[in-house]
Design brief:
With about 675 residues, the protein is mainly alpha-helical. It has helices spanning about 5-10, 20-35, 50-55, 65-70, 75-90, 90-115, 130-145, 150-155, 160-180, 185-200, 210-220, 225-240, 245-250, 260-265, 270-290, 310-325, 330-355, 370-385, 385-410, 415-425, 430-440, 445-460, 465-475, 480-490, 495-510, 515-525, 530-545, 545-560, 565-575, 580-595, 600-610, 615-630, 635-640.
Length: about 675
């Protein structure tokens, strides 16, 4: 028998909304996401992956200062790359697995965010709230399988985008929970912590306070007396976001991002702004009808306000804004989702309009796709009966899944992706150079030449064409032709550090030290992070007996990359040559700690101990070198000398040049 108090307690509990529960959507996202994205586990690295993932900073997880110098406002992704490197070195599968996992978490966060939205005070009593959990589940699935997100999932370095999106959603969820449960301030602090983590994930987090402010006024009640309380709640988020420009101002010259120099060297141009207006319209089209996707679009620039494409884009975007206003009274979640699109893309719009390059990339729209995922089921259940709405959204999900499977298939093979890129952007030099680089790396020189000929037809005087041609000739041991190609590249536009570096290398081969020094210094002018140039310039000074200059440049190279084995070997060698045996031993031992399988470190250290008449240590080092390289004749001869007392040791350690082979 129920008591009156028990009945009262039961009535005070809000009714559960119909639809699949969290466990069901969890298993659906986990299972569906793994099936959809599993082919990416066999994909390789691409584009900026080599820049970030081959950064020496990720090789030392304990050196946070070095990671900060390399990644700056994307420190957290850098730490995750370092964890990946510690777990699996250069195996791409581990990096892709983490990217997939982050995306699956984001899909679940979309569910949590959407479900909370339908429980907010301004939505809870509306007809759409009856289907809130179902709409949230559909939004989660749309975001999980939408083709527009495949680039962010497959492109390893765009983990910064997916991580920032994760903290973006977590911050919103924490804020909404804090507003709905005023007594539990832990949610408010959790939201601030999440925002702080987002700040060191990617700069796009700066739009979050605006999204929060709009959310507050869309979904929470407030009268004239609530304005001050709202400002107090939102102010910490606005204040914390001011850390982003501060962190960018602290960006060092070694930072891989180099965002500050890009911004300072650029300026706003009307043609860029108009082009970005078209880009926004393209993102809308890709959300609704995601076909003909590309990893690197050859997007046309707009040259005047009256161009039909701009007029059409302005009409479409203005129509979306008008729809958001009209929908405010009928479906606030749908209206908010439209404004979400504009808010989350505003940073990319501003940066691309200012910098004027890389105007469109699909990963720019990753977070904006959350808005579309919420909008589609929200508007469907607003304008159609539930059964028809569910059928329509399910049909859209099936369409998106088929397209995503096809896109994941393309991304799962680097050659396939680059060929697809060239087919869709046949007049873009970067598409040509990326595919030719791939063929060179895989020693398919005939294919590389065929692709490169397309580049020469498009831009016969482009420096990158000649650098790639020189690389092919060098790999084929056609050294005179390689040299001519590099020297030609060094005199063309755009200036390319690698062209000067390789030309300097060939001058050094001929012992033309003055020309080699000039070209190496020019390569460092165009790329101050080119460790190979520091190393070879140091070796150039070693050959001329200028030990002081050699040490200066070799140390500079090791500041950029402490793990450059050749640079550290040269520094140890110059210490030995100038009589600083302790300094040489210290550097060789550092090499061995960093690279336990470095034959040259054991060989040179054994030679150094032999020169000091420390035969037991010399023999120990040389035997380790022979265990690693049994066919190395130099090691065998050194061991034989140890067995013959009185036999002179070599007068100097072996110095390695960074290039194809040491100069004669």
């Amino acid at each position: 028998m129920r008591t009156p108090d028990a009945r009262k307690t039961r009535k005070s509990v809000p009714p559960r909304l119909p639809g699949p529960g969290i466990p069901l959507i969890f298993w659906f996202v986990l299972g569906g996401g793994v099936l959809l994205y599993a082919p990416l586990l066999k994909a390789g690295f691409l584009l900026d992956d080599t820049l970030f993932l081959h950064s020496p900073a990720i090789k030392d997880l304990g050196n946070l200062e070095f990671l900060w110098r390399a990644f700056n406002t994307r420190l957290l992704p850098g730490i995750t790359f370092a964890l990946n490197y510690a777990a699996g070195r250069d195996n791409p599968a581990g990096y892709h697995a983490v990217n997939i996992a982050v995306h699956l978490v984001n899909a679940l966060l979309v569910y949590a965010f959407a479900a909370l939205t339908f429980r907010t005070p301004r939505v809870r009593g509306t007809p759409s709230a009856e289907h809130g959990t179902t709409i949230a589940s559909l939004a989660s699935i749309i975001f999980l399988c939408h083709p527009l997100v495949t680039q962010t999932v497959a492109y390893v370095v765009q983990r910064s985008t997916s991580l920032a999106a994760m903290f973006y959603l977590l911050t919103l969820i924490g804020y909404v929970k804090a507003r709905m449960e005023p007594g539990r301030r832990i949610w408010f602090f959790a939201a601030l912590v999440s925002l702080a983590l987002g700040i060191v994930s990617k700069e796009m987090i700066v739009t979050l306070p605006l999204a929060l402010t709009l959310y507050e006024f869309f979904f929470f009640s407030g009268g004239p007396g609530q304005t001050r309380a709202r400002i107090v709640r939102l102010l910490p988020f606005w204040a914390l976001v001011l850390a982003v420009p501060l962190l960018l101002s602290l960006e060092t010259d070694s930072a891989l991002l180099r965002l500050r120099p890009q911004v300072l060297a650029s300026g706003l141009a009307l043609t860029n702004v108009l082009t970005e207006i078209n880009v926004l319209n393209t993102y809308l089209r890709l959300m609704v009808f995601p076909v003909n996707q590309n990893v690197d679009y050859d997007y046309p620039f707009v040259h005047g306000l009256g161009e039909p494409s701009v007029v059409w884009s302005v009409i479409v975007l203005a129509g979306c804004m008008l729809a958001a206003v009209r929908l405010f009274s009928r479906s606030r979640p749908a209206a908010y989702a439209i404004w979400w699109f504009f808010i989350t893309l505003s940073v990319e719009f501003a940066v691309c309009s200012w910098v004027g390059r890389d105007m469109i990339f699909e990963h720019y729209a990753y977070l904006a796709t959350v808005g579309f995922a919420l909008f589609l089921p929200s508007i469907a259940f607003t304008v159609a009966p539930p059964r028809n709405a569910l059928r329509a959204v399910a049909g859209a999900i099936a369409f998106f899944c088929m397209l995503s499977m096809a896109r994941v298939f393309v991304w799962s093979d680097v050659e396939r992706l680059l060929q697809d890129n060239l087919v869709k952007s046949p007049r873009k030099l970067r598409a040509i150079h990326l595919l030719s680089e791939y063929y060179i790396k895989n020693k398919q020189y005939d294919r590389a030449l065929r692709v490169l000929h397309l580049g020469f037809r498009l831009a016969p005087e482009h420096s990158y064409n000649y650098v790639h041609l020189g690389t092919i000739y060098e790999e084929q041991n056609r050294l005179p032709e390689a040299r001519r190609a590099y020297e030609t590249a060094a005199g063309l536009e755009p200036p390319y550090a690698r062209a000067y570096f390789k030309a300097g290398y060939f001058f050094a081969r001929d012992r033309r030290f003055a020309e080699a020094e000039e070209y190496y210094r020019k390569s460092l002018y165009y790329d101050p992070k080119l460790t190979n140039a520091y190393c070879n310039l140091g070796n150039l000074y070693i050959m001329q007996g200028k030990s002081g200059e050699a040490i200066t440049f070799l140390r500079s190279g090791l500041r950029e990359d402490p793990y450059d084995v050749f640079c550290r070997n040269s520094l140890a060698s110059v210490y030995a040559l100038k009589g600083d045996k302790e300094g040489a031993i210290r550097e060789f031992e550092t090499m061995i700690r960093m690279f336990p399988d470095s034959v040259i470190a054991y060989k040179n250290l054994g030679n150094l101990y032999f020169m000091q008449n420390d035969l037991p240590r010399a023999e120990k080092m040389l035997r380790k070198a022979r265990a690693l390289a049994p066919q190395d004749g130099d090691v065998t001869r050194l061991l034989e000398r140890i067995g013959r007392p009185g036999t002179p040791s070599p007068s100097k350690p072996e110095v390695r040049w960074e290039g194809r082979r040491p100069p004669e």
